[in-house]
Specification:
Radius of gyration: 19 Å
Number of helices: 6
Shape: elongated
Number of strands: 6
Order of helices and strands: EEHEEHEEHHHH
Strand order of the largest sheet: 2-1-4-3
Number of domains: 2
Length: 177
């Protein structure tokens, strides 16, 4: 079954996450959200009728940014499975985590010190800083918002209607996020 993205806004109408259209429909049925817009081309089917799939919903809460320690998966998603040193796209099974300041030198498990890395670059860098290894970072790592993680997680499933909804709510350049 194909899952379509639904834009989730908080009570102040700021984008906070992306849910599947099925999860959003369930929230609608349980009166846990307000549907602001439905898909024109996507619907959910029951034996007796069709229901339009939610495209944009608003939930009655405020959601904060990630406040916990990062996970391996969250780092990979934040970096869009791209090696921070060579720019190569890596598979989930081949991706590694690199500490910019190595653990042996006091480097912490923090958003700003961790990047996705291919095994070749990780081995080349070793127990050195990027500068000592003569390697340059393609991007400066930073703590992402829930919404940035959601965008990267759902990016491959975006369609024209969803991109239009993003644009309507102020997200214009998805590739830059």
């Amino acid at each position: 079954m194909v899952l379509y993205p639904t834009l989730v806004l908080d009570k102040t109408y700021l984008p906070v996450s992306i849910f599947s259209h099925k999860k959003a429909f369930l929230l609608e049925l349980l009166s846990k959200c307000e549907v602001l817009e439905h898909y024109r081309t996507v619907s959910l089917h029951s034996p007796s009728r069709d229901y339009p799939a939610p495209l944009v919903i608003r939930i009655p809460v405020l959601i904060r940014h990630w406040e916990s320690s990062p996970t391996r998966r969250a780092i990979f998603i934040r970096d869009n499975f791209t090696c921070a040193y060579c720019g190569k796209t890596v598979k989930d099974s081949e991706a590694t985590i690199d500490h910019i300041l190595p653990k042996s030198r006091g480097g912490k498990w923090q958003w700003e010190n961790l990047v996705t890395c291919c095994s070749d670059c990780n081995q080349k860098k070793g127990n050195r800083t990027p500068k000592e290894a003569g390697m340059e970072l393609f991007f400066k790592p930073k703590k992402p918002s829930n919404f940035q993680i959601s965008l990267n997680r759902w990016r491959s499933r975006f369609n024209e209607e969803f991109l239009g909804a993003l644009s309507l709510y102020g997200i214009r350049n998805v590739e830059a996020i």
